[in-house]
TrEMBL record:
Domain FAD dependent oxidoreductase per the UniProt entry, residue ranges: 17-404
Transmembrane segments annotated in the record for this chain: none
Keyword Oxidoreductase: yes
Family annotation (InterPro entries): FAD-dep_OxRdtase (IPR006076), FAD/NAD-bd_sf (IPR036188)
Keyword Transit peptide set for record: no
Species in which this protein is naturally found: Rhizobium setariae
UniProt-recorded Gene Ontology molecular function terms: oxidoreductase activity
Top-rank lineage group of the source organism: Bacteria
Keywords (A to Z) from UniProt: Oxidoreductase
GO CC, alphabetical: cytoplasm
Annotated coiled-coil segments of the chain: none
Record-given protein name: FAD-binding oxidoreductase
Length: 434
């Protein structure tokens, strides 16, 4: 069976140095980094690789603000600077493109008092946004950096031009990572295979393979419960989960033994990890619904991303523009789009008049994993050091998942990850909720 086979028609046991549970952006980069280190990898996903929260359309890669510099901002900055080189290696090997562009970002300042704040950030960027000879800027100006792009009524206080921000096509990125992994002799990718049980001390997992469901069934609003015709797995998935117990008689159970496992199943990582931890005062994380849309427009794909008050307008290649996004902590249907997205589209069309009559060609909704500390959640589980969390990236996963994946590999190989902030670690975030 080749490394790219999707079915789990195994007899007996399979074995790998690293079992990656989840094939979103975090799990894919974790698998890439493990494979590059010479480790054998099996990656399983309950749905299709690159689906879930990683299958969106937006693709904005934004840095945190350049003020109040700390370890986590430095980690993210280094990740954003290094991402193009990481992608280029995979692109050269596969012939595919991630559609990455260091396009920058324009932020109009609707009120005059915002200019003074922006000017302070301009100075902060001069101090902090540099790596060797590479520098990026937070330019502030009275006139728009690009003419006839942003509606002038939004720029009363001027404009910010952030040159560090970038964009990529999320589905192109995950397709690139998957294609590279499929070419590796030490990697096996398995879709439509759910984690049924995990015995961490024995390094043993049972995985249930099943035929693809024609469409995902929405979860109920309560944590860990599914529609009546869908059973729960032992890890009690959160609302919006894609992880399910296969229908009786339509699945096969196989065993995978591993040295280490990366729990990278997005929002469903939280109950999986909680199952291995002492009782917590509150959940380790939650799912936050996001909605976005893709529009057809002849806007120049080289234009900067436009951003204002949570509204993203992301020019992509081939005449497409992505618009988003919502952040919903409460929702009835995790996978549907509704009036919340309509409201975002209305604001986007006002901000960028060229989109006024642009056709909406796709609408998307998904559940993003937000950890209790709002930061990525990476590192070994206490008492189970062979189980490594790799989740919780929320809105920033695509810009730093390659570095977080390397950190997970470092933990697995007994090394201290370089530059990983304490508040990005599982142990660091657990200390805040016990």
């Amino acid at each position: 069976m080749s490394s790219g086979d999707k079915s789990l028609s195994l007899s007996g046991q399979s074995k790998a140095d690293i079992l990656v549970v989840g094939g979103g952006i975090m799990g894919l980069w974790g698998a890439v980094k493990a494979a590059q280190a010479g480790l054998s990898v099996i990656l399983v996903d309950a749905g299709e690789i690159g689906g879930g929260a990683s299958g969106g359309v937006l693709g904005a890669l934004f840095p945190w603000m350049p003020d109040r510099w700390d370890a986590k901002k430095q980690f993210q900055y280094d990740a954003l600077v290094g991402l193009p080189e990481e992608l280029a290696v995979l692109e050269a090997a596969t012939g595919l493109s991630a559609a990455f562009r260091r396009s920058g970002r324009i932020i109009p300042l609707p009120k005059s008092h915002l200019k003074a704040i922006a000017l302070r950030h301009q100075a902060d960027a001069l101090n902090n946004w540099h790596q060797g000879d590479i520098r990026f800027f937070w330019h502030v100006s009275d006139t728009p950096p690009v003419a006839d792009y942003i509606a002038p009524e939004f720029g009363e206080g001027g404009y910010v031009n952030d040159t560090l921000a970038a964009r990529a096509a999320p589905r192109a990125v995950t397709a690139l990572l998957k294609a590279w992994l499929e070419r590796q002799p030490n990697v096996r990718l398995i879709e439509h295979a759910a984690l049924a049980s995990l015995d961490a001390p024995k390094g043993r997992a049972e995985v249930a393979a099943f035929a693809p469901h024609p469409s995902p069934l929405p979860a109920s609003g309560e944590r860990g419960q599914w529609s009546a015709d869908r059973a729960t797995i032992p890890f009690a998935p959160l609302a919006g989960s894609r992880w399910r117990q296969p229908d009786e008689g339509q699945s096969s159970i196989s065993t995978i033994t591993f040295s280490h496992t990366f729990i990278a199943a997005g929002v469903d990582s939280f109950p999986m990890l909680e199952n291995l931890l002492p009782p917590l005062a509150k959940p380790l994380g939650q799912g936050v619904k996001g909605q976005a849309a893709m529009l057809r427009s002849d806007i120049d794909p080289a234009l900067p991303v436009a951003f204002l008050d949570g509204i993203y307008i992301v020019p992509h290649e081939n005449g497409y523009v992505a618009v988003g996004s919502t952040s919903e902590n409460h929702y009835a249907d995790p996978l549907s789009t509704d009036q919340h997205l309509d409201h975002v589209l209305e604001k986007a069309r006002a901000l960028v008049p060229a989109l006024a009559r642009a056709e909406v060609v796709a609408r998307w909704a998904g559940i993003r994993p937000k950890s209790i500390g709002r930061d990525p959640l990476v590192g070994p589980v206490a008492d189970h050091p062979n189980v490594i969390s790799l989740t919780g990236g929320f809105k920033i996963s695509f810009g730093m998942a390659h570095r977080l994946g390397q950190c997970a590999v470092d933990f697995a190989m007994g090394r201290e990850p370089e530059g990983l902030p304490e508040n990005f670690t599982l142990s660091g975030q657990l200390s805040s909720i016990r």
